[in-house]
Structures are given as structure tokens and as C-alpha cells.
Amino acid sequence: MLDIRGGGDMVLTLLHIIGSLGLFLLGMKIMSDGIQKTAGHRMHAVLNFMTKNRFTSVLTGFSITGLIQSSSATTVMAVSFVNAGLLSLIQASGVIMGANIGTTVTGWIVAIFGFKFNISAISLPVIGIGLPFYFVKRFRKESIGEILMGFGILFLGLSMLKDSVPDIRNNPEVLAFLTQYTWKGISSFWLFVSVGTVLTVIVQSSSAAMAITLTLAYLGWIDFQTAAAIVLGENIGTTITAYLASLNANTNAKRASRVHTLFNVLGVVWMMFFFRLFIRFIDFIVPGDIEGQDGITSHLAMFHTMFNIINTALFIGFIKQLAFLATKLVKPGKLESLTEYDFPYIATSLQDTPELNILKAEVELKKMFQIVEDMFSAFLTVFDNPKKKMKNEVEQLKEMEEITDRMQEAISLYLVQCSNENLTESSAQNVTAMIRIVDELESIGDSCYNLILLTQRKYDKKIKFSPEAIEALKPYKAAVMEFLKFNQSKLNTPFSDEDLRNAYNLEKKIDTFRDSLKRLSRKRLKGGAQVKAELLYLDILKHIEHIGDFSLNISKALRMIG
Questions:
Q1: Based on C-alpha coordinates, what's the Rg of the chain?
Q2: Cα–Cα distance for residue pair 339/399, rounded to 1 Å
Q3: Which of 53, 343, 405, 531 is positioned for an S-S bond with 410, CB 3.0–4.6 A?
């Protein structure tokens, strides 16, 4: 064991600790990536439970966090979904509460396997087993290899961390020094809560901070009360990632991140009054010595779990009140222009992985789908109501067209950044398909805007179409709207060969209508119809047909998404 009293030895010991922590964090990152790649398709199914009620929202948060081993990633995703309008503030609050419970699983894994067993003895064999899965592409099991290798590296790092931190029991003079700061009532409580908060912000992972706390407690550097207060602080520190993710989001997303902070901070506040009683309760239900080396880690893991379960049980009935308080804290800003749009790629090392970022990109795609569908609906409304003043509608469509331009640029850049990460072959293909979809949606937005301009010219120049021409357009426009809705409904569901055949049939139907309408237009011209009217009519046919072509391209891209 290194002598911590020597200056050079202290520096070397510190470097050993930092290196061991780095190895632990690397293992956690690799394992988390592997789990998310393996469970990516399951997350879609789990997310479907979000919209039912507050209890299923809690279950969703718990399940996703249990799958991906990161509460911060789950809460960031919840904030993103609120920003997209897919989750209400109340539903997101339940997901956040469930994520807090889910993150306690990591503490149990570390407490049981990292300290109860000589896990370092099997770390290298586990890495060896995972190696061929990762490097032999023929197996197509790279994600399984990542899970095994990450698991091995994580516990190898934990073992080295445990060995690098000197056992304070062999240095009683340091222990005597530390006791001066260990526990001085409420002031010490908030001091160590602050330590836990800062520690989590620094390492960007409450799970990693928990592992450090467990190690320090196991080696006697801190007693159970101190460790428990640090764990409470880690619950506050983990809210920073969702807060950062909400900075460029809308008002509701900001409120969702504040609910996360309020929930965790208020939990620590009530715990302050029952702290000693709660510690006695944990000691009663967990066997072993609460301060002994063999018992302190399991006591801490149980403290972490019970705190989050009880905190959720207390506040689940007050979700509306938490949401109301968050609403009061985050006032609506000045009315923002519709054209303001930002979709930054937030990379926070441990907390965000490409698989989750692709899910968030799908949310933005759904928003873009809805915008172009609304644009086409607005064109239909204006076209079918010639007596209605339409200055506002034209301005609105202009703004919507500008936002589709911005969305194309921002989402495409985001997806390119996703593609630079370590993706599975399937996910890389999905990213390519999504970039194509974004491009086609932007083209649909341009066509819709051109249609509204053509309609405006028709009314400004007092150009009249014959009643027969207007009537003949109805099934043509309806077929295009059907195609738009068809693609939107298939965005988050598997796109089968049968769906692709349906897409081709829809495009063929649109082309058939176009050809028929062109023939009728030529017939009207021969019969002496107004040339300007028929040329304008043909322009409208052309842009509507383009929407059908772009929609078929979207269907082809959707078929590529696995």
C-alpha cells in the first residue's frame, strides 16, 4: 500500500485514483452503448406506455433507465419529447420520477459485485469473451461484445480504484483529522449534500459518483451518515444534464427540467428532517454492520433505493402541483417567431449515446411531418375558399416554409454528427434514410409554399377556373393528402414490403389523376378557355404532383429504416 504521507507518493496515488476512475467511466460508457444498441428497438415499445397515466409514466422511466443505465439520458429524452409536444409536462414528470428509481440499479450492481466478490478475477476473462463478438464482424454481435467488454473494464476500473485509494484504517492520524469535518449536524448535512452535487456535475454521471462514494465508504474514508448525505447530493447533481438540454428548448421543456430539479431538491429537504430516523430504518431492514466494511455498501445501496422509492411515492400524488410550481418558475418568454428553430447535438459523454440521439431525431422528424401536412392543409383551405382574405395565411405559410428550411439544416447536421459516433450497421442505415426524409420534407414545404403563391396570384389577378376544373381537382388533392398522412403514420412503425407496394399504388393513382387533369385542360383550351387560367391550373397540377413524388421517395427511405 502506498504511503500517503510522502508528497511524491501522494501525487502518484492521486494519479492512480484518477486513472482508475477513468477506466471505470470508460467501462460504463462502453457497456451503456452496448446495452442501448441491443435494447434500441425495445425502447420504442417501452415509450408507447408513456401516454397512459402517471403510474405507467413512472414505470416507463424506471424501465428505460434500467435498460440504458443512465437516468440523465432518460430525463433528457423526456425533456426532448415535451419540447416536441409528444409528452405533457405531467407525463414527463412521471418519467423523471421513474428514472430516479431506475438509476439505483447501478448502485446495487456495484455494491454486490464490486465489493462482495473478487470481481477483478473475472474481469479480464469477461473482456476476453467479449473481444471476438466485438471484432469478428461475421458474428454481427458487436453490441454484445461491447456489453461484455464494458462490464469487464468497469469492474476492473472499480477494483483498481479500490486498491488505489489507501485504506484509511491503516492511517489513524488521517482518520482523526477527518473526524473534525465528518458530522456537525445540519451544517455538515448540507456540506456533504453539496459535495455529492458537485461530484456528480464533475463526473457527469450519478452512477459513477455513486461508485466513488461506495468505494470511499468501503475503505473507511467516510462514515455512513456522510456517504448517505453525499448520495442525496448526487440526486441533485444529476439534474444538471436535463437542465442544460432545456436551455435551447421551448417553455414547456424548460418546465420539465425544473420539475426534475424540484422533485430531487424537495426530496432532500424532507429527508433533512428525518435523516437520522431514516438511517436507523435502513440499518433495521438491511443485515450486517452499517459501519462495517462488509455491510456499509449494501446499506448505502438500500438507502439510495428506498429514498427514491419513498420520494416518488410521496410526490406522485402531487405531480400537478409540481408542474404548477414549475410553471410559476418558468414564465412564457416573449412571443418567438415560428422561424426560430434550434436542434443542437448535446454530447455529454456518459449520459448521451447515438442510439438515444437517433430516437430524439425521430421526434423532430415527426414535427417536420406535421408542419408540411399543415402547410398542405392550409393551401387546401385557401384554395377552396376564394372569398376569404388570405394575407395572414400566406404570411403563415411563408414562416412555415422558412422553418422547414431551418429544420432541414439543423436536423441534417444533427444526424451527420450522430453518424460520426460508433453506430451499429442498422443505426447507420437509419441515419442515412432519415437525412433523405428530411430533404424530401423540405422539398414538400417548398411545393406547398409555391402552391399558396399560385393561389394568391389566381385571386389577385382575378383568374377564374371553371367549376368542372375545380371539382376535378378534389380527388387529386385528396390522394396527395392521403399519401402525406400514410407516411406520417408509418414513421415510428416498421415499414413493410406491403406498405411500399401501397406507396407505389398511391403515387400511381396521383399520376393517373394528373394525366387525366392535363387532358381535360387541353380540351378546355381547344374549346376556347382562358389561356392564363389553364397555364396557372397546369402549374398547380405540377406542384401537387411533385408532392406525390417526394412522398414516394420518403416511403422508400422509410423502408430502409430497421
A1: 29
A2: 6
A3: 343
Count Cβ neighbours within 10 Å for each residue of 268-285 and write b for 16 or more, e otherwise. beebeeebeebbeebbee
Angstrom distance (rounded) from CA 6 to CA 409: 57
Place of cell 485509494: 165
Contact present, 87 and 255 (Cβ < 8 Å): no
Give the predicted TM-score (pTM) of the model.
Answer: 0.66
Q: Which residue shows C-alpha cell 410550481?
A: 325
CB 557 within 8 A of CB 436: yes
CA dist 101 and 547 (Å) reads 47
Spatial separation of the C-alpha atoms in residues 311 and 308, rounded to whole Å: 5
- Residue-wise pLDDT for 245-275, tens only, equals 777 667 877 888 899 899 999 999 999 999 9
> What are the b/e assignments for 29-43, b being 16+ CB within 10 Å?
bbbbbbbbbbbbeeb
For the segment 502-556, what is each residue's pLDDT rounded down to a tens digit? 999 999 999 999 999 999 988 888 888 788 888 999 999 999 999 999 999 999 9
CA distance 213 to 223: 10
| Helices 425-460, 354-383: crossing angle, 10 deg rounding | 20
Contacts of 8 by beta carbon, 8 Å cutoff, 6+ apart: none
Q: What is the pLDDT of residues 345-354, one digit of tens each?
A: 555 444 455 6
C-beta separation of 263 from 325 below 8 A? no
Q: Which domains does the chain have, with CATH numbers?
A: 7-329 (no CATH), 354-560 (1.20.58.220)
Query: Which residues have C-beta within 8 Å of that of residue 328, sequence separation ≥ 6?
Result: none
Q: What cell numbers appear for 396 in the block?
A: 403563415
